């Protein structure tokens, strides 16, 4: 696969480091320098960042909040991560623009498809916060949506496991990793590394997904080159 423009999905937890919540400076710096290196190598990178290190909408239910309010808080968490990443990537020497799906003009640009494409063409890394801008969605679905809108060649899902397994590897130590599978197989076998809506949207827009682990330094550059342990999920 020849990749020029990639959509990188980073879960919020990926920025949390060993503490498991909030932002870890060292982790942020490591991931940002990997992204900056990929940009210097000529890849156009758009990032959709999650917010699970701060708040997930469903957590609100146990606090007496409605799902709609919980999801609004969750989306705000993703914007916090986008601002942190924008700063960390610029500190690593590459220009970056945070864009939010929910207008917050005092903090960052609002997401507009054509403006995001302009930034990418001009060599800036675009960091997309706010998910889809709607409750009841996830940032995985946001990542598939933005990858389709921005005509990305691939969706790279960077996470804490090194691919898609036949069952959750965190729960089943005997789980086996796929090198390759289709979106339909991932959906029908209920392989929960991404939600069904994200797999379905990626399938319908003809977008391949690479699932890889973010843990080692240089992981993002290697994933872009198709190197290292990973699972390739293809529409057919
Ligand atoms: N079949 C599977 N293959 C790989 N990972 C899976 C699978 N089922 C569930 N997972 C879990 O999906 C998680 C990766 O998704 P991610 O979006 O980064 O995490 P979260 O959903 O907790 O934010 C991993 O922590 C892994 O334990
Ligand atoms: O389009 C979206 C994307 C995210 N969220 C909310 O933001 C939270 C954080 O996103 P996500 O759980 O996808 O983050 P990740 O698991 O990747 O860290 C979610 O739980 C939702 O509450 C939402 O409402 N709409």
UniProtKB/TrEMBL annotation:
It comes from the Bacteria. It catalyses: UMP + ATP = UDP + ADP. Keywords: Allosteric enzyme, ATP-binding, Cytoplasm, Kinase, Nucleotide-binding, Pyrimidine biosynthesis, Transferase. It is found in: Cytoplasm. Pfam families: AA_kinase. Pathway: Pyrimidine metabolism; CTP biosynthesis via de novo pathway; UDP from UMP (UMPK route): step 1/1. Residues 4-213 form the Aspartate/glutamate/uridylate kinase domain. InterPro entries: AceGlu_kinase-like_sf, Asp/Glu/Uridylate_kinase, Uridylate_kinase, Uridylate_kinase_bac. Signal peptide: none annotated. Allosterically activated by GTP. Inhibited by UTP. ATP binds at residues 9-12, 52, 56, 159-160, 165, 168. UMP binds at residues 51, 71, 132-139. Residues 17-22 are annotated as: Involved in allosteric activation by GTP. Homohexamer. Belongs to the UMP kinase family. Catalyzes the reversible phosphorylation of UMP to UDP. PANTHER family: URIDYLATE KINASE (PTHR42833), URIDYLATE KINASE PUMPKIN, CHLOROPLASTIC (PTHR42833:SF4). NCBIfam families: pyrH_bact. This is Uridylate kinase. It comes from Camelimonas abortus.
